Amino acid sequence: MSRSVLVTGGNRGIGLAIARVFVEAGDKVAITYRSGEPPQELISLGVLAVRCDITDSEQVEQAYKEIEDKHGAVEVLVANAGITKDTLLMRMSEEDFASVVDTNLTGTFRVVKRANRGMLRAKKGRVVLISSVVGLLGAAGQANYAASKAALVGFARSLARELGSRNITFNVVAPGFVDTDMTKVLTDEQRAVIMQQVPLGRYAQPEEIASVVSFLASDNAAYITGAVIPVDGGLGMGH
Q1: pTM of the prediction?
Q2: Could you give the count of Cα atoms lying within 13 Å of 19 in the half-sphere of its Cβ?
C-alpha cells in the first residue's frame, strides 16, 4: 500500500536520493526544504515540496497540516535536514554551536514530535534519523556538528523504548563520507587523506544511504528498533 512519507531536507544530496527511492516504491512522498527551489525532477514525479525551516515550530506545524491535507498522516518520517558550521573550538561562537544544535537536534525533535501525533493514533509508524559517522568518531573542527549528531542516538533509543509498544520504530543511519555537494568542496589532498581512513577506499553514493533507509522503513525491518546502522565503508568500525 502507498504510504505517506516525509523526508526533511529532501531537496538535495542524501535527502533527494531518499525521496527518490520512496517514490520508486510507489509511496506518497513529501519533502521539506529551507531555501532555493525544489528539484523539478521531484515535482514532475508528484512529490509534494513544502518550504519549512525546522528551527521554527510554527513552520513545522503548517508544513504538517499541508502534508496531512494532501497525503494523510505521515506514516514514515526520515529526519534528514541538517547544517554544519565547522570551526575550531577556540573560534566557535555560541551562535555557531547553538544554531547547529537547534537545526540538527532540536529541529529533529520538532518534526518527530509532530509526526508522532498521527503515528500514535494509527498505532504504527517508522522513524529514521540521519546521523553521521562524525557523531560516533568525532572530528576536529566539528564539535557542534558531532555533538548534535551523537545526540540523535540517545534520542532515538529513548523513543524506541517509550513507543515500541505502539508499533513505532526508531532507528538511526550514520553515513560516512558521501559524494554530495557538501564533500565536493574538499580539496584533492583532503579527499586523499579521508580515503586512507576508509577500508573500502571510496566515498558512498547517496543511493547507498537511501537503500538502507528504505529497508528500515520496510516490512522486512519490522523487528528492528533502536539500531544505529553505519553506512560508512568501514570508517567507524567498532562504534
Answers
A1: 0.95
A2: 29
